[in-house]
Amino acid sequence: MRKPLIAGNWKMYKTPQESAAFFNEFVPLLQHHKHDIAIFPATTSLAAAIDAASGSHIAIGGQNMHWLAEGAYTGETSPTMLKALGATHVLIGHSERRQYFNETDETVNLKLKSALAHKLIPVVCVGETRDKRESGLTEAVLNWQLAAALNGISAEQAEPLIIAYEPVWAIGTGLVATTEQAAEAHGIIRREIAKHLGQHRADGTRILYGGSVKPDNIAKLMAEPEIDGALVGGASLAAKSFAEIVHGSARAYGEKS
Ligand code: 13P
User: Of the four, 162, 163, 181, 216, which is 20 to 30 A from 196 by CA?
Assistant: First the structure.
């Protein structure tokens, strides 16, 4: 059984002070549960979040990174810089990076190799746009994105790998993939991982669902055996709603396991 992970992507929200205030409210709301929890704050709030989360079991990660350890790349953050702060995870290839900041399948691959080499736990985001889904190209897009991301990576190296399936049409839109759509996409992703890294690695890889996850839809999503957790945007910004998502997931996971 894969251990679920509930992750919050704060995107370009929250100052260091606001981040610390979130943890002051969030940590006491967590009761005993079986979950791994990770939060991805803005780069400028990483230090405050790591400090505020210390002593809890909440992991903190970067939302993006360059693949090199250092260099003349104005505005970028390196894996060694994330590590030095105490970050343990990193998001790679989020659709907003692909859409607005020229992230390509090639840079996703470079970043994934670098994260693994630097012992950061990578959460690689894949997902189709509405156009591609409506043209019947969901499977082709997912397979293509995964094949490119995993190029040159061995099953052994990919041991910590986490994938987030985020259909672009469901992000920030209030449209949630049905559990059937999500389960089907997760199945496609798992088969593609198996093709590149073998069935054993595919069976052990956590695949999160992301796209308008809220307290009222988490239980249904988590009841699906193919869904190993969630990557939550908007609903992770408020401590109460994110804690409700963790608790909803824990209940559904308890029923599933
Ligand atoms: P929303 O939960 O706001 O739809 O965002 C999803 C997302 O992009 C998480 O990375």
Answer: 181
SS3 85: helix
Please confirm, yes or no, whether 166 is among the known catalytic residues. yes
Residues with CB under 6 A from ligand 1: 9, 94, 166, 171-172, 210-213, 231-235
The per-residue pLDDT for range 85-126, each reduced to its tens digit, is 999 999 999 999 999 999 999 999 999 999 999 999 999 999
> Quick one: pLDDT band at residue 206, thresholds 50, 70, 90?
very high
Q: Tell me phi and psi for residue 207, to 5 degrees.
A: -120, 115
Residue 61 CA to residue 68 CA, distance in Å, equals 17
The Cβ of residue 135 has, within 10 Å, a number of other Cβ atoms equal to 12
Query: For residue 164, which atom of ligand 1 is closest to its CA?
Result: 10
State which amino acid sits at residue 115: A
- What digits encode the pLDDT tens for the residues 54-68? 999 999 999 999 999
By CB atoms closer than 10 A (0-12, 13-18, 19+), residue 237 is middle
